[in-house]
Automatic annotation (TrEMBL):
Stretches the record annotates as NMP: 30-59
Name of the protein: Adenylate kinase
A GO MF label: AMP kinase activity
Keyword Ion transport: no
Native source organism of the sequence: Primorskyibacter flagellatus
């Protein structure tokens, strides 16, 4: 199965994708992780996107579509989980075209429904926990960047809910529930 996890920053996309990788042998395609990796390894592209990411803004469609194209050409295993992609209507159209070109199909887009207040707490806590454990803190995990990330989500990504609804591919789960409950809800959708 090929699925999209949709939701604002801190909704739990990465957490749930990791559980599906573990349990269902799926492949997580996180454009956020790919971009952070490019920054760490100091590629030209990584340097180009660093400031944009730190401010909480979206990087260009062209860059992320290129990253996804490369990964789709790789092994498929139990299917792809798109985590943090697509984030704009142009990216959604590009994904559809890429999948068609490669003879693959998207099964569903799962929205993790949450409330903004909870997201702020989750992100601030994630930063505190990383710092306490001596791990690197994401440069965009602060209240100022989070405001921008949320606004980017509402302006540019939330229209995808209508897009996938119109294609009869949108499913919803309560992202405020305990992680194990969210996981069970997602698996129930995959098994239905
Ligand atoms: P990206 O890395 O995708 O970040 P994001 O969407 O802001 O998402 P997060 O990773 O913060 O949250 P998440 O939903 O994965 O939640 P998580 O599971 O970590 O993007 C970063 C940047 O890269 C963007 O701002 C942009 O600049 C660029 N970018 C990336 N993709 C792009 C694209 N396609 N186009 C353009 N630009 C792009 O959970 C968060 C915390 O909550 C964790 O501490 C977790 O333990 C906790 N938690 C999770 N679930 C629960 C639960 N059910 N109950 C309690 N706590 C929970």
């Amino acid at each position: 199965m090929n699925i999209i996890l949709l939701g604002p920053p801190g909704a739990g996309k990465g957490t749930q994708a990791a559980r599906l990788v573990e349990d269902r042998d799926m492949i997580q395609l996180s454009t956020g992780d790919m971009l952070r990796e490019a920054r760490t390894s100091g590629t030209e592209m990584g340097k180009k996107v660093a400031a944009v990411m730190d401010r909480g803004e979206l990087v260009t469609d062209e860059i992320v579509i290129g990253l996804i194209r490369e990964k789709l050409e790789g092994p498929e295993k139990g299917g792809f989980i798109f985590d943090g992609f697509p984030r704009t209507l142009a990216q959604a159209d590009a994904l559809e075209a890429l999948m068609a070109e490669m003879g693959k199909k998207l099964d569903c887009a799962i929205e993790l429904r949450v409330r903004d207040e909870v997201l702020v707490d989750r992100i601030v806590n994630r930063a505190k926990e990383a710092a306490a454990a001596g791990k690197p803190v994401r440069a965009d995990d602060n209240e100022e960047s989070l405001k921008v990330r949320l606004m980017e989500y509402y302006k540019k990504t939330s229209p995808l809910l209508g897009y996938y609804h119109a294609k009869d591919k949108l499913k919803r789960v309560d992202g405020l529930a305990e992680m194990a409950v969210v996981e069970a809800s997602i698996k129930a959708i995959l098994d239905s």
